[in-house]
Amino acid sequence: MTPQPDPQAGAAVKAADRAHVFHSWSAQALIDPLAVAGAEGSWFWDYDGNRYLDFSSQLVNTNIGHQHPKVVAAIQEQAAKMCTLAPGFAVESRSEAARLIAERTPGDLDKIFFTNGGAEAVENAVRMARLHTGRQKVLSTYRSYHGATAAAINLTGDPRRWPSDTASSGVVHFWGPFLYRSPFHAETEEQECERALRHLEDTIAFEGPATIAAIILETVPGTAGIMVPPAGYLAGVREICDRYGIVFVLDEVMAGFGRTGTWFAAEHFGVVPDLLTFAKGVNSGYVPLGGVAISPEIAETFATRPYPGGLTYSGHPLACAAAVATINTMEEEGIVEHAAHLSENVIGPELAAIAERHPSVGEVRGLGAFWAVELVKDRTTREPLVPYNAGGADNAPMAEFAAACKKSGLWPFVNMNRTHVVPACNISEAEAKEGLALLDEALTVADRHTTSG
Hints:
This protein is of the alpha/beta class. 40% of the residues lie in helices and 17% in strands. It has 14 helices and 16 strands. It has helices spanning 7-20, 57-60, 69-81, 92-104, 118-133, 150-155, 189-207, 233-244, 266-269, 296-301, 317-333, 335-357, 396-408, 429-447, and strands spanning 36-40, 43-46, 51-54, 111-115, 137-141, 171-174, 212-218, 247-251, 275-278, 290-294, 361-367, 370-378, 383-384, 410-411, 413-415, 418-421. The strands form 3 sheets. It has a 7-stranded mixed sheet, sandwiched between helices. Strands 11, 12, 13, 15 and 16 form a 5-stranded antiparallel sheet that branches. Helix 7 (189-207) runs parallel beside helix 8, helix 12 packs parallel to helix 14 (429-447) and helix 13 (396-408) runs antiparallel to helix 14 (429-447).
């Protein structure tokens, strides 16, 4: 894992990228993407020989790290046997992937519809809910991210929605629970839960329960801030959905497959949705794959009525082979349990200690290998270190913090006024502690922008 510098090759990769690659979520003339030469485990490196400890799991999807040999071997073996086949056939890797996923989803979500990723999973879950109920409206929270395709981006709550929001997609947003920045002026988790559920009930009452097809929630919101819901909230939403005949959809695209220290985050809260979306960690992102786990009642809707949806690459054999190998590897190596261990004995305690040392840290929160560090200007007022959706000069404090991380060899996941601690679920204790020490050091840069700095 010792990278051999090759700046000339790196310059060629960078030049071709800048000449031809159109990057997502970016002003093309203002970006400077790092040319990456290789990756292994919890590390990746550039062509100059600089190594980075990946505390982002890329986009919180390399749950078993980079280049796990068992998964690489499974992809190679499947490629030699059968690279692709249309979705209408029964294929061993597809069937086995569906079986392994269904064994681990909560309750009786035993039917699996495969997609290419999380956004398409959300698109199809919403379509299923609308067709099943004959209703059109879907409720989602403001602090959320559900994907960048047509329905998914409208469901999304964060500002990436704004340029594409049609305001006519049948989406209604509401406030989910988040005690640290409570929209309900709550002082305890119990109050936050009660008031958030009352707010949801009021929203449903004024929208008309008979018009609402589904409520979709990230079980633990990811990019929006890793806000672990208070005890009883998801169970309360489940009860509301049952009362009004609303389909309950849990988005586990980021929180699933070990990320929170259980196979699915729903296990922490004892709830079973009607539909569950997944992607990312299902095969550690090695080949694009996502899907929807479907309840018997909704599956029955399409027993003799064709489901009007599909994708050329649904259940792609290479992707499914990677999923089979990933799930089996996670089981064999105890990776889900390891993520829970890291949370309780390494990441949680270390972040609590870091919070004590830094005036820029307002709150730390999370589960498993899924944590957020909320950065503030003032701990008392809880004013964010940068304004909501800040850019340019307004975002300078967070940009300086991120640059300090990278300079030290730590690759962070930064969004708005937060940095997320989301390493591979199988990162070693030593590597996790190394990364947290680098984070600790970089936070001194954020401290300079506080009222006490």
